[in-house]
Amino acid sequence: MKKICVLGLGYIGLPTSAILALNGYQVIGIDINKEIVETVNKGKIHINEPKLCNIVSDMVAKKRLVAKTKPEKADIFIISVPTPLNKNKCCDLSFVITAIKSIIPYIEKENIIIIESTIPPHTVEDIIKPIIEKAGFNVGKDIYLAYCPERVLPGRIMDELVNNNRIIGGCTSICAKKAAEIYKSFIKGEILITDAKTAEMTKLIENTFRDVNIALVNELVKICNKLRINVLEVIKLANKHPRVNLHLPGPGVGGHCLAVDPYFIIQKTPYLARIISLAREINSNMPYYIVSQVKQLTKDINKPKIAVFGIAYKGNVDDIRESPALKIIELLKNEGFIVTIYDPYVKTDIIATSTINQSIENADMILLLADHNEFKNINYVKLVKKMRTPIIFDTKNIIKKIDNNFKKIKIINLGNLFTID
Fold first, then answer.
1. Domain residue spans in the chain?
2. For the segment 60-94, what is each residue's pLDDT rounded down to a tens digit?
3. What is the mean pLDDT of the chain?
4. What pLDDT is stored for residue 9 in this prediction?
5. What CATH architecture does domain 3-203 belong to?
6. Superfamily name and number for 228-421
7. Model-level pTM?
């Protein structure tokens, strides 16, 4: 049984560890957070992801998965640590570099080292490879180094880890071949072989594509509002064209991928990445636009109270990384609004949340910022009876059903913003 050491037990590292253990590997999961290590070793999980808990529990019970705070010798090392933005909106590679340096004392000839963390182009060749070779190893001959980015969606990670196609970018062709053998053991999708720098850029452009397209419709929201046109109707009709597929607008872009990855391209060629930079600016400014509309909607209300529904960056997950909701809440408080927060998925000490009843008590607006299924199925007619002013601002366009009782409620979405003038 081959032994794999996975560094980083976060949103990608832990599911990857679980899948590898399930497919016959002996997995050692490494994390510097002792609480995470203790949680995993109890067969429990610290993130909300369907199907993950049962697999982790089973693999820990069978001793095929164990968590530790320090790496050890293994056949394969997988780096899945965070790569956040620094204050200059460039990739902070410190976690990756630290992880690579931490395994140097344990690697041996014929080991395979795989980077899954999202990184800028040329990182593997220009930064990671020299660290390994400085330790006396020849990459491509006695150590095999590859970049294999994840391409999964929170809420469906356990399925997509297995079924999605996977890019394998090797420092050499033999590096790519060695890494591909690991992924072929559990992936049902296509294995796509390329070099490391191409894989790095491919990962980034996949998310940048979506960010740019979201920016297009978010800009269209402002244009249509100014021209008193329903943007949602425009998008629906335009998408009937066989070669048009506009995304839906929203309060901004969140998550570690879409809101972060484009900057990794920008940092490498800032003078060329003009559309990418503008798209980032448009999406990053959407919280300011949403708050300006909240102010307009509540301009005649004394000391308005806003009940924010949803702070996760997307529906049905507990992930608040880069969530535009956090910026919106900050801006609302700075403007003097009373703000309460309800999110059935998110449990965090970072921001205070309330129960649904506490949140809406005497509120003047429900501000929907996440498309959780629970929010789609709420009886809003009953709910608004506890509010002072029955206004719902649905930035995710999830309230579909309107009956006679809704006539007493002002329902605003990104398609009818112009009606609040």
1. 3-203, 228-421
2. 999 999 999 999 999 999 999 999 999 999 999 99
3. 94
4. 97
5. 3-Layer(aba) Sandwich (3.40)
6. NAD(P)-binding Rossmann-like Domain (3.40.50.720)
7. 0.92
pLDDT in tens, 314-338: 999 888 999 999 999 999 999 999 9
Same fold flag, 3-203 and 228-421: yes
Q: Residue 11 carries which DSSP code? A: T
Percent share of the chain, pLDDT over 90 = 87
Active site residues: 203, 257
